[in-house]
Write a structure and sequence with these properties.
Distance between the termini: 34 Å
Helix content: 25-40%
Strand content: 15-25%
Radius of gyration: 23 Å
């Protein structure tokens, strides 16, 4: 169960988690502000954990840029931690939401915070780690993200800097290097102004494919139904569907079930 104060909206499905160390450097602050501002101005929701350091800066910068932000607590909604972020939490509720899976009254015990990171990553399509030490909670968030099939970005840092050891380790493990905020848009399939990129689907290349494509919609149909509606032999339909799937025109959805690919 999730407890929510504020509102989660449909546009929040296009979200990016921005996380990092509590003891940030000036470099980390600069990068966190730049990324959060970039995302917020393009209508992309910023998710973080309301902790000191990178988290708080990401939330505050998103709000200042006029964007939406979601904060996930490691305590009950009425026990905001750290206490100096109580006013920030109130502001977030007006332009986003504060969430927790802990009941009201739950204190901010240290053991609560690692599990809540699965919600931070789960709310986002991408997790960006700005700065992180070798034992940072941000690395826990990155691990959850990888398990959940999310893309993980890490900001490169100096090889001798303690706050970059975690992010540099993520890069060695295969995380995307974040060298500019625009890198995020490629994974989200958005243009520079935050609009979805136009996807041009291949067109049918013969009359059989045209008939099959005309019958299909976004709701999956069994090949027998497709054959019946198109008035074509089942052998011709299955052959056409195989080629159309290879070309990305249709998607197989279960045994012998097909639907039109979303454009």
């Amino acid at each position: 169960m999730l407890y929510v104060r504020g509102r989660i909206r449909e546009e929040d499905h296009q979200a990016v988690a921005v996380v990092g160390t509590r003891r940030l450097t000036s470099y980390g602050r600069q990068v966190a502000e730049e990324i959060a501002r970039f995302l917020a101005r393009r209508g992309i929701t910023v998710v973080s954990g309301l902790a000191r350091g990178i988290d708080g800066i990401a939330h505050r910068t998103a709000l200042e840029a006029g964007g939406r932000t979601l904060a996930v607590l490691g305590s009950g909604l009425n026990r905001v931690y750290p206490p100096e972020h109580r006013s920030l939490a109130r502001d977030i509720c007006h332009k986003g939401a504060v969430l927790s899976d802990y009941p009201l009254g739950t204190p901010p015990d240290g053991s609560n915070f690692p599990p809540r990171n699965r919600i931070v990553s789960g709310l986002a399509k991408i997790v960006v780690v700005i700065e992180a030490g070798q034992k940072s909670g941000a690395l826990i968030t990155a691990n959850y993200a990888a398990d959940q099939g999310r893309d993980v970005f890490a900001v490169p840092g100096k090889i001798y800097a303690p706050k970059s050891k975690g992010t540099n380790f993520l890069l060695k493990q295969g995380a995307h290097p974040l060298t500019a905020p625009e890198d995020i848009l490629d994974v989200l399939e958005l243009t520079a102004d935050g609009q979805p990129e136009a996807v041009q689907l291949p067109l049918p290349s013969n009359p059989t494919e045209e008939e099959v494509f005309e019958v299909l919609g976004l709701e999956a149909l069994h090949v027998d139904e497709i054959s019946s509606r198109a008035g074509l032999p089942i052998e011709a339909v299955t052959a056409a569907l195989t080629m159309m799937e290879i070309k990305g025109m249709v998607v197989k959805s279960g045994s012998m079930m097909y639907r039109k690919a979303a454009g």
